[in-house]
Amino acid sequence: MISGWGERYVSILKELNYSRKKDKESALILDSILKKTDTIEKIRKLIQGKTVFVVGSGPSLSIAIPKLKKLKKSIKIAADSSLKPLIDNGIIPDIIVTDLDGNEDTIKKISKTKSIFVIHAHGDNIEKLLIVKKMKNCIGTTQTNPFNKIQNFGGFTDGDRGVFLASYFGAKKIILFGMDFGNQIGKFSNTKRSDREIKLKKLKIGKDLLIWLSTFTKSELFTTSKSIEGFKKISYRELDIIIT
Q1: What pTM, to 2 d.p., does this model score?
Q2: CATH classification at residue 129
């Protein structure tokens, strides 16, 4: 577990009134479902020393998709809610970071490919974890202390967990797409109106965590989305230079 995460986690629990006990319970259940595999090493080989794209479902995703379609060979980590629009446009992510809140049919469909799932266990998704029994390429993560087959690479929302994952496994460069962290919620996020306030709080937490990550990661950080402290804002025209 990365240094300083424990304090950040406690702060998140207090702000959102979440239960550490429920998070731990979920992690224990996921651990009991997961099989021992070499998936961690597969992730390391995919990411280490590479330029990695992390794709979220913010408002700018619609603009990013045509560019992503052209960059077929680049390593792509997708946050859960960006998965369906990516798949619908023929873009298959290498890694999907998910707490299983996204489109279940899309998750089942992509689980039959070579894509790797990084399944996150928390107090609100215990009833969804059984789907993992049908997955082959997957690992489990938690916000609490890691144990046995459950990892903690840092991060809170699917999007920022993808960035923490890329950093943890030594990506040379990390480039954000569709990760806007503003007051607008992307149309692909499937957020109900009643959940808008909590969603914006989570986005703020995710942004703050990425700013924190930028202070110690060894990866070079870029964004094609909204500006974020610690990440260099680049245009799509600059991508070809950055990824070489």
Answers
A1: 0.92
A2: 3.90.1480
